[in-house]
Amino acid sequence: MGTEAEHPLLSLARAYGLETGYVDAEGLRQEACPEVLLAALRALGASIASEAGATEALRARRLEEVRRVLEPVCVHWQGEPLEIEITLPEPEGKNRLLAELRTEAAERRRFELDPTQATTLERVQVEGIFFLKRRWSFKAAPGPGVHSILLETPGRRLEATLISAPPRAYAPPEPEGRRWGLFLPLYSLHREAEGGAGDFGDLEALMAWTRDQGGHALGTLPFLSSFLDEPCDPSPYAPVSRLFWNEFYLDLEKIPELAACPEARALLGSPEWQALLKSARQARHVDYRGQMAMKRRVLEPLARAFFADPSARRTDLEAFRKDHCQAEDYARFRATEERQGTTWPQWPQRLRSGTLQPGDFAEEAQRYHLYVQWQAESQVASLAQTARDLDLRLYLDLPLGIHPQGYDAWREQELFAAGVSVGAPPDAFFARGQDWGFPPPLPERSRAQGHAYFRAALRRPLSAAGMLRIDHVMGLHRLFWIPKGFSPREGCYLRYPAEELYALLCLESHRTRCLLVGEDLGTVPPELRPAMARRGLLRCHVASFELRPDGQAPFGAAPNDSVASLNTHDMPTFAGFWEGRDLEDRQALGLMDEAAWTQETRRRRELRNALDTYFGSGEAEGDSSHLQALLHGSLRHLAASEAAWLLINLEDLWGEPEPQNVPGTSWERPNWLRKAAYSLDNFTALPQVLKVLKEIRRRRP
Fold this sequence. Notes:
By secondary structure, the chain is of the alpha/beta class. It has 23 helices and 25 strands. The strands form 6 sheets. An 8-stranded parallel barrel has the order 12-13-16-19-22-23-24-25, surrounded by 5 helices. It has a 5-stranded antiparallel β-sheet with strand order 1-21-20-17-18. A 5-stranded mixed β-sheet has the order 4-11-10-6-7.
């Protein structure tokens, strides 16, 4: 595009936080084209129709920045002085200012800002006016929390959010040693007598069994609310809302109203229900739509019975409503969607804009959705308490995205960019790049609301988790934007206020005593891992990514601040990796070009040879005992490493060859559907499973 002086569009893009180019997976610089930058700028709120308007738009942007006076979010790290930065026109900068600090606990502290006691950081001229940026420093600082700063200037009263946080995420006061845990998606877990998807009761049973084997963590995928009718999208990473749980996983037997509801009990004992169980047992995949429909037929009479008769539990519901102020709104949204028979982008304008009134939805449907959220909250709270009682950490995920037709996208329309989706640029594994289909948050809108939505979305899994994995942790620093009409090959990165988001992560992790793990896989910006280390986030060490064709040392060393594993839910299982099924699948789907296929196939063969040399036990290749010997050797190697945690995919222990998810696909593959080959009752007694876990327990006492 030429030099920045020749093209003010580049300056404008950077002024809005857009990166005008990036270094790809092969180390080559990729420049964003003007059309992509213009589309992204418009989505960010810039008033620009064409490249010719860049100069005027840049002047407006710079004036907007200096007139901001006080940043909408300020960060204070505990143990450091409190600093406040203010930008004012030079004449106004000579005046004393009044400020007030309001803490979370409703305490108020007023103080005066004397310009003679400030440090001048910058003097800039914009539109012929000189502006001074100054910093005040105070030794007395508030305790941890999300506070407010109110500033009075001539003719203006401004407010900013002050995040005062510990400098590092939570870590136990005493070293816990090298620990380990297990992983299995909740939908994949099932009982022999039932056969359908797992529920919260099954997860609780698996937690207890994991602890009996010596494990201290149980990982699973997000169980946030999903569309399971029309549309039906069970992806844990496209939730209807990041603020509410998925009633699909309710354990019906644990709902108190069941004992006094003949209608619901009759259905559970009916031939129709038994036929559903039989069909579920025989199926390889979870039938979300069918199972949710039957489950709802039990839940609806339970909700009707509860609201029909006054009971002592009404007090519990009122407490839930008070603690979850958006629950009523969420229930109305789901009920309105059912009455409209379509998702919110197709609703009439008034409903689409976020205004719902009585008559827009069936009250019984609204009460149903409120009731099941209350029940889900109760059962998840029980899970969290069980984990604490067992001294086990429930390992959950904070998904990066939301369903574009879901509740959060509807209620927070001003927060998310229209006409843009998030994805990833092309790399060796995905030659076409990836478009994940969900809208990105607008950083300035998020800052203006004090990151309230991010805080709420973070607190949801933290209310239950003992370990929380931050999906695509790079998103704290930057996200890859793909404007509508462009491909992932043509996207660009937008920077996000990482320091503010880290502060919230550190603050909330201490409040809940939860360990944080950043999913830092793939091509990440150079500043990411130092920032994670500085703020105390554990990193991921995935052996499949660390393998090298060296028969003397095929694995890289796992750092002591990591969670080590053989793979993740987005990767082939150990057996699938060994057989090269993922490469064959990606080639068949067109996700790899011929050159990448040839290169990766050769490299995979070299990696297999290295593993065989290092861990092979002499069995013939293709024999199940040969693969088992390699698996056991790999797990022993990771168990002996310095990694703080080892997470073992249960499905690897019985040689499952199929993945749970193939990134870059949706309907093309049965993602998020496959049940475990063995039921909970069976795999907990499998000799090959017990043998491996006994060895892991010995190596990680």
